[in-house]
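Handoff note, outgoing to incoming analyst
You'll be picking up this chain. Sequence as last confirmed:
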Amino acid sequence: MVASVPSYKWLPLTYQLASRLGTTKAQQEQSHPRAPDGEAEDDDDDDGEAAATASRGARPGVTVTFSDVLLRLLWRLCAEHPHHSLLKVT
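Most recent structure output, in case you need it:
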């Protein structure tokens, strides 16, 4: 899905995207906590994830994480638009 969007449309978000590079799964869970134990929760998340991953064209059994997609997008931005996405260090 991200690959189908032209790269120039992501340029205004370059700094916001880059700021998420160091985010770990534990930090993501802290910012988006799961439902407390007392509340009903969807227990079949693994099946839904596998189906969603398979429907997006990924290889079966391979989980594509947010970090993977983000890193590929940033590499693409830097390769196609280096003057807009890479910082000049003097």
